[in-house]
Amino acid sequence: MSDAYHIIVADDHPLFRSALSGTLLREFPDVCIHEAQDLSSLQLQVEHNEQANLILLDLHMPGAQGFSGLIFLVAHYPHIPVIIVSAHDQPEIIRRAMDHGASGFLPKSSGIDDMVEAIQTVLKGGVWIPKNVSMSDSSNPSEMDFAQALAQLTPQQFRVANMVSEGLLNKQIAYELGVTEATIKAHMTEIFRKLGLHSRTQVVKAMSALAVQPLHDQSTF
Q: What is the mean pLDDT of residues 30-44?
């Protein structure tokens, strides 16, 4: 890359973030790396680095349920392409990520050559997935409909919906966000309306459908 690029590395594992950032700096000497450990810090990085060219996003980020983080980024920062970097490499997971707006999917088991190719391809406006993966399977209509509705939430409403999906009560959410319980109730009213749902239980169920179960072997981060 002849010009300097700003890449945000978003992963909740410090060792993996450090390793990936180090590899990027070796392969792309002029790159500027920004790191995020959860969805809130990722949002701050994006807002403070409007010149960001690319986000490398793990599927298991605190503050998000699986694909919900990707849906949030694509909805609110559509000018920044996202490559999912995940220990998951199942074709179904890759297809769902691409359906939800990812510009690429890089399994964590990939070699450096694939990583370089994926990043260069996406920075040039293309898309990249592993060569042995077929995208012929059809999308899940109900999941895509919910993703479209979820994309309508404001950043604060998105945080509240995720906290509800984690089992927090309005009082707890208000404390965590530093607002009044009445404000959270107002957010919940809008969340129900925008998502076409009527109860917290329905929110939990709908959000959990976007989750990706962690692999049993976490040695690959």
A: 94
Contact 115, 28 (CB under 8 A): no
List the alpha helices (DSSP H) in the chain.
14-27, 39-48, 68-76, 91-99, 112-123, 141-150, 155-165, 170-177, 181-195, 200-208
Average pLDDT, the chain: 91
Residue 150 CA to residue 140 CA, distance in Å, equals 15
Which domains occur in the chain, in start order? 6-136 (3.40.50.2300), 141-208 (1.10.10.10)
SS3 23: helix
**pTM more than 0.85:** yes
Asked if 11 and 221 count as a contact pair (C-beta separation under 8 A), the reply is yes
**Closest by Cα among 15, 12, 16, 81 to 46:** 81
